Amino acid sequence: MRWILHADMDAFYASVEQRDHPEYRGKPVIIGGGSARGVVAAASYEARKYGVKSAMPGYEARRRCPHGIFLHGNMKKYAAVSRQIHEVFSDYTDQIEGLALDEAFLDISGSVQLFGHPLNIGRAIKRDILKCTGLNVSVGIAPNKLVAKIACSLDKPNGLFLVHDDEKEELLRPLPLRALWGIGPKAENRLAQAGLSTIGGLARASQATLTDVFGAHGQEMAARARGEDDRPVVPGRERKSIGEESTFSHDIFDRQELRAAIAGHAEEVAARARRAGVVGKTLTLKLKLATRRATKEPIAIHELYPIKSKQMAFDEPTAEGLKIRDLGWQLLDSLALDDGVRLCGLTLSNLHHEDQPRQLSLLEWRGAPPPDQRPLLNQFSHGRTKSEMVSRLLDQVQEKYGDTMIYRGHRAPEKTSTSDRKKWGTQEDED
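The structure corresponding to this sequence follows.
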């Protein structure tokens, strides 16, 4: 029997802050969204009672919950807690597919012989995560990914929900369409026009309706509505890209300000790539323009503003901030802008593991390093350039003393949000 477990931390970022700050417990904590253009990254359950949820614009979150505690968040801290959580997962199976810092799929089919019934495994994982991190996790268990994820979402917070194979259609039948992965606002609106509002209705929809709404994927969506999903858990899924983006507190018209923002993003992307032990071959610049689209159709928040983007390849894969910055500036110079910019993003993709020493350029040092620098630099060299070795020294200093102790200086425009965007291939919709 195949058993898939979906684990999703409850209000992860906000819960970490409430754990670390007792004065926040029992109060509405909101990560992100602290300014008019900020976007909510996470909301505690106390904040959710007021209708605040992730991806909501900050102005709306403040309107609904004016007494909320708005925090910038600390991605490094959340990533460290995430590593603790994944260590717990690995005690029960090596078949782990991480979706984000706070959620993962686990194939526990082979684990039942060691740890007993799937519910016992779910209880043990919940117990161990609570003991290790002081945080609660919700768990859904089912014969496949799709149903396990939905089951998890139906029993939050701190839930545990198991669905047998012969129960999945009954579970899905009354649920709203948006509960099904792959259905967004546009598809939901078109299905509503066809008189469909539930997953059960979609499962019984005619071929003509399926084709009209989903095109060639109509039968696939009907199968999902019946709870069918044969996707395997993919352990150790390769990271596809690393990106950083932020929404500015005001529209940016000055290209020098945009260059400063790109420089800051380049350093952050490069540092995360180095921590992951990867280098990237392709860089993409994304700019969201300031003027809102005029549309009467239902549209997702992230689609309200036009986007300009362009990508280019490096001569050699890199995780060096200065190289990423320079190519980012080149991409900016190639784009014609007749509007202000409200969001800037930089993404490094086409990633490869940096597991091979490289030949150091004869031109890079322009002579040997001073004698007093040689012992310190030798431990980082391995064929790296001087600039790369300096970056790794910065990484170590910042890891020990914090980001503000030493850094490359960039006068960037004020931003309302930070991000830690990582793409790992096909991503499930956020809970």
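The CA atoms of residues 85 and 221 lie 32 Å apart.
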